[in-house]
Amino acid sequence: MINNEKNQKLRAIIRSHKRWDIIFGVVGLLAMSVGILTLAALFLQMVIDGFPRLTADFFTNFPSRRAGQSGILSAWVGSLLVMLVTAMFAIPVGVASAIYLEEYARKNWFTDIIEINITNLAGVPSIVYGLLALGLFVYTFGFGQSILSAGLTLGLLILPIVIVSTREALRAIPQMVREGAYACGATKWQVCSDHLIPYGMPGILTGIIIGLSRAIGETAPIITIGALTFIAFLPPVPFTGEATAGMFDWLFSPFTVMPIQIFNWTSRPDPAFHANAAAASLVLVVLTLSMNAVAIWLRYRLRKNLKW
């Protein structure tokens, strides 16, 4: 009799817990559905408004006071050049820093402070990086309001992401790989270059591309360092022009980027410019999604080819 009462109580407790599991699952599904449907509605509205403007002229024309003749040539060229500088700075510095911290640095209070600061920097608002770059790159180093300043600013912004993702990729490699290489007489650098970096490349590339995907959509730090909202010329092409441009003159050229151009168009009252902003936003979203798709594809291909 006593056992039956205990079993009934136990079944009641289990039913109660299952009921709460079902309720939590339904609430979670509803919350996820709200987010997905809102995002889908916004994306659909952007496609409806902007898709008719996606013509060849839209990509090859400079911004104009006339919405129908306005394009994103200077914006997408500026975005690509800024991303080039960002990648050239953030990738080698970030990967090298991660390798040093994970494989070379001694574990003591100093490295603990560095690791804490790197983790904290990943959560710092982007406007803070813009203010830092304004004082450091624009005024102190004298780079001015240029592509170089913008690229270095965004490079600092994504540097913690690259470092953290690279360290996590290196930590995921089994210790037996290191021990086997050392047992064969390999140096620490040979272990890193011949084993750890190739094996960790899927995670490293994923972190790099995700970081660049974030950087390409940033607006606040670029506005802070003085990106132009209207620009009707391209940076100088090396070894061209009446006064022959130098190899790196384009680094110090004024610039604009896609987010700035979108911001400029959305701030105008004319609905035609809002359609241009929707079209540019669609291009930026597709570019960002493409970069993330490339990261997923690279991770899949590289992990598939790995042999431990």
Secondary structure topology:
Layout: H1 2-50, H2 56-60, H3 73-104, H4 109-121, H5 126-140, H6 147-171, H7 175-183, H8 188-216, H9 220-224, H10 258-266, H11 271-305
Helix pairs in contact: 1-11, 3-6, 3-8, 3-10, 5-6, 6-8, 7-8, 8-11, 10-11
Short description:
The protein is mainly α and 308 residues long.
* Distance separating the two termini: 59 Å
Given the helix and strand composition, which structural class is it?
mainly alpha
CATH architecture descriptor name of the largest domain: Orthogonal Bundle
What fraction, in percent, of the residue positions are helical?
Answer: over 70%
Radius of gyration: 25 Å
**What's the tally of helices?**
11
Protein model, in words:
It is a single chain. The protein is mainly alpha-helical. The chain folds into two domains: 2-52; 54-305, MetI-like (MetI-like fold), CATH 1.10.3720. 73% of the residues lie in helices and 0% in strands. It has helices at residues 2-50, 56-60, 73-104, 109-121, 126-140, 147-171, 175-183, 188-216, 220-224, 258-266, 271-305. The longest helix has 49 residues, at 2-50. The radius of gyration is 25 Å and the shape is globular. It starts with a helix and ends with a helix. 31% of the residues are buried. The model has no long low-confidence stretch (mean pLDDT 84).
Please give a handful of descriptors for the protein shown.
mainly alpha; MetI-like fold; 2 domains; 308 residues
